[in-house]
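Exercise 7. Predict the structure of Leucine-rich repeat-containing N-terminal plant-type domain-containing protein from Citrus sinensis.
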Amino acid sequence: IILLDNNFVGEIPTSIASLKGLQTLNLSNNNLRGYIPLTLSNLTVIESLDLSSNKLTGQIPQQLAELTSLAFFDVSHNHLRGAIPQGTQFSTFANDWFAGNPGLCGEPLSGKCGNSEASPAEDDPPSEFVLAFGWKIVLAGYASGTIIGVVLGYIFCTRKYEWLIKTFRLQPESNGRRRRHRHRM
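Solution. The predicted structure, encoded as tokens:
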């Protein structure tokens, strides 16, 4: 899947991990933000992963070092920090694939990691349970908001708002005109 230069905004969807047979994923040159999802380590046959030139933050997940078929991994020009994972494939990657991330350290970069790096608790991405819980709350909010909006729209459009006036003790606005009743004879 090659989706470069599409101006995608937001986070990398964790649902990409369900594409088990995916060999190439190129999401470079977009406006992707947030963490690199841990679920990308489920792409066990991926050979090329390009996440360069986005606005990704946090650390590179250590689980990605376990992808033995990964031959190309470019995360250059993001806002990543912390130690580059060490593993079978990561030791063969070029420096350029990590360039433009001043917070990264470790092999293959010349900058060694020391005590100055942020604590792991700050760099860990939020758990996927929290993310999954969040969309359900948003969906419930939209649903309840829609129902309330439809009910209030019906009430105000049909001019049946007397109960609203009584409930909240509102006074209807007077526009200065009085009705005249005509008496028929």
